[in-house]
Amino acid sequence: MENGLATANNDGTYTYRYTAAEDTAALPGGVKAGAKSFTFTVTVSDNGDGTLAAIVNYPDGATELAFTNSYEASTTTATTLSATKILTGRDMTEGEFSFTVANIKGKLVATATNAAATDGTAASLAFTYGDGSASGLTYTLDQVESDIKAGIAEDGPADPDKPGRTAIYRYNVYENTANLPAGVSAVKDTFSINVLVVDNGDGTLSATVNYPGDGLAFENSYDATDAELYINGAKRLMVGDELAGPGYITGKYQFTITGGDGAPMPGETTVANQAGGTVEFGPISYDKAGTYTYTITESGHVNGVTNDADATKTVTVKVTDEGGHLVARRSTPTASRFRVRTSSSPTRMAWRTRPSPAMMPCALPRCLRVATSRPTSLPSR
């Protein structure tokens, strides 16, 4: 007691007072300190037999000192998108065309307009994100967790070098073609992209945009002798209420287009689904007005995936002469959907096929959406 480390009590015991504190000066990146220090006492008494008894008195009746930290992570810089627009047949004025970026649930996340350009020259798109105050797409770890539960994002592939959370966000990027300028026909107007978000384990997230093979390259034509049209789609695969990663089915399904009597055809009539989810046939050129009917059939096989028997859809294209130029429009009233059944272990699982409500409705006349299936149960572990 002479050194002041203990306090003598009236009952013959002695009390020592201590403070335990976490060193927060060099916490790992993203780690936040909770309670930084605790004060507790130790009561020492003489047992009368040559031994001492010591009782630890924790604060607030606790049974231990509980130091709790939390971890947060976010993108340090906003993720921006890159796209171009080409108009052939005449010059393009600034802001003449508009574009929309929507997530897998159909929610608008960004818009864009074109820069001015001369005939046949690619112009960059200027994107506006969210309500206009954001400089790009941003992500936080809490947001990722919430979005995966809501079906807005999906679990991404594991990264052995970065054991934190990975997630994939899918977006549809399309031109608003309902009110194109007179004489302008959309040639390439719909694309699918995904963004891979990775927790670096240091409080930061990295976000990488995966574009289709030729990027987001929108094309329109004006007053051309022939009209051109692409039939595009997006291939999706769902397991239960969760989207599966793109690597599982990329390039493993083929889509074949055939035409009715006299229907012009693209250069490639059989294509595979791309890494970004896009299914794209080459341009179809029309040199006379009329109504043309096409059938598109899905084929291919992946272990545990069984194609729906109803794998052939019909698309109708109406070509009209408008003021001396041909315009091709898809006139099928609703988007066709392919359905598949999936199973990662057929001997242990039963699956049923139904269209996915997570697919964004396709309002564009030239966009063919490919729907997905959901299992009735998850695989046993």
Structure, briefly:
By secondary structure, the protein is an all-beta fold.
What does this structure look like?
Strands 7, 8, 9, 10, 11, 12, 13, 14, 15, 16 and 17 form an 11-stranded mixed β-sheet that branches. A 5-stranded antiparallel β-sheet has the order 23-22-26-28-29, with no helix packed on it. Strands 1-2-4-5 form a 4-stranded antiparallel β-sheet, with no helix packed on it. A hairpin with a 2-residue loop joins strand 20 (238-239) and strand 21 (242-243). The longest helix is centred in the middle third of the chain and has 10 residues, at 141-150. The termini are far apart. The protein is 3% helix and 45% strand. The chain has 381 residues and is mainly β.
What brief labels describe this structure?
disordered C terminus, five-stranded antiparallel β-sheet, mainly beta, 381 residues, 45% strand, eleven-stranded mixed β-sheet, 1 helix
Shape by Cα distribution: elongated
Summarize the main sheet.
11 strands, mixed
- Point out poorly predicted stretches: 333-337, 339-381
Number of strands: 33
Euclidean distance between termini CA atoms: 62 Å
Using only C-alpha atoms, the radius of gyration works out to 31 Å
Mean model confidence by pLDDT = 80
Q: Helical segment tally?
A: 1
What portion of residues belong to β-strands?
over 45%
Helix share of residues?
under 10%
| Class from secondary-structure proportions | mainly beta
